[in-house]
Write a structure and sequence with these properties.
Order of helices and strands: HHEHEHEHEHEHHEEHHHE
Protein name: Methyltransferase type 11 domain-containing protein
Number of domains: 1
GO molecular function: S-adenosylmethionine-dependent methyltransferase activity
Bound molecules: S-adenosylmethionine
Number of helices: 11
CATH superfamily: Vaccinia Virus protein VP39
CATH topology: Rossmann fold
Radius of gyration: 18 Å
Pfam families: Methyltransf_11 (PF08241)
Strand content: 15-25%
Shape: globular
CATH architecture: 3-Layer(aba) Sandwich
InterPro entries: Methyltransf_11 (IPR013216), SAM-dependent_MTases_sf (IPR029063)
Distance between the termini: 28 Å
Length: about 260
């Protein structure tokens, strides 16, 4: 696992501008697990998914590799934030989460592509309750769907960002179709066939730009002294957006896979 998260330097704005996952997703996931004692939200960031999961589970453990991200964790009486540095062994992680066969739901929201996936799955298989425990992973991608013009500039930005994308981003570009997912389907996507969901969000142009600044590639380039969101790109976005004062609906596309441990 990476020693640091690309989000370490943009945690505050990340929390303010990233889209929120709809509550219905969490109701749907919770209906799939047989018990509701313990959930684990991995790569939790500011815990937005953890807090939503906590509406359905007695206790949620929310973990992240980034201490600055965890400092932004939304306080919730049933959510416990824990730091999981890459140096933690599998056994240590399993023990920290509550032991083998103890977790009813694992969620990984827009994060698994950063993980050491074989190590993570090995831990997930151990801690998930058998039978009845469910793991769900999802991501939205970097293309901004407001109108065809904005999407076109967004595709150009993807190319500009390419040298700064970390290897795991390939899974996002492929919309999780090639993400390993060695679990039994529960009817909500399966390996090779993620289910596609929509996540609309109203955004001002300013919020949209801030959201772009929190992209891992833009943040990584910035840490290396390179500004990928040049004045030219911003101007192109502005023209495509149609006016600085317009609030527009941005349709994020989400790709989700859920499953249980194979018998
Ligand atoms: C795009 S953010 C998503 C945060 C949150 N789940 C959400 O949906 O808002 C990805 C998160 O994964 C964390 N992360 C990256 N690599 C990780 C790893 N190997 N183990 C745990 N967390 C990791 C990052 O620090 C970051 O908080």
């Amino acid at each position: 696992m990476a020693m640091h998260s690309p989000y370490d330097t943009v945690t505050k704005s990340y929390v303010a501008v990233r889209p929120q996952y709809p509550d219905q997703w969490f109701s749907k996931l919770s209906a799939l697990t047989s018990r509701h004692a313990l959930a684990w939200d991995a790569g939790t960031g500011n815990g937005q998914a953890a807090v939503a999961v906590a509406e359905h589970y007695e206790r949620v453990v929310a973990t992240d590799i980034s201490e600055p991200m965890l400092k932004q964790g939304i306080p919730h009486p049933r959510v416990q934030y824990l730091h999981t540095p890459s140096s933690l062994s599998e056994d240590e992680t399993v023990a920290m989460l509550g032991g083998e066969n103890s977790v009813d739901l694992i969620t990984v929201a827009t994060a698994i592509h950063w993980f050491d996936i074989p190590k993570f799955y090995s831990i997930a298989q151990r801690v998930l309750r058998k039978p009845g425990g469910v793991i769900a992973v999802w991501t939205y991608n970097d293309l901004i769907r407001v109108n065809p013009e904005v999407e076109q500039v967004s595709r150009r930005l993807r190319e500009i960002c390419r040298p700064y994308w970390k290897p795991g981003m390939q899974y996002v570009f492929e919309e999780y179709r090639n993400l390993p997912f060695p679990f039994e389907s529960v009817g909500l996507g399966c390996e090779g066939q993620p289910v596609e969901l929509e996540m609309p969000r109203e955004m001002s142009f300013e919020a949209f730009l801030s959201c772009q600044r929190t992209s891992s590639a833009v943040a990584t380039a910035k840490q290396n002294g390179v500004d990928l969101l040049t004045d030219d790109v911003v101007r192109e976005f502005e023209t495509a957006w149609g006016g600085l004062d317009l609030v527009r609906t941005v349709n994020f596309k989400v790709f989700m896979l859920a499953g249980t441990v194979k018998a």
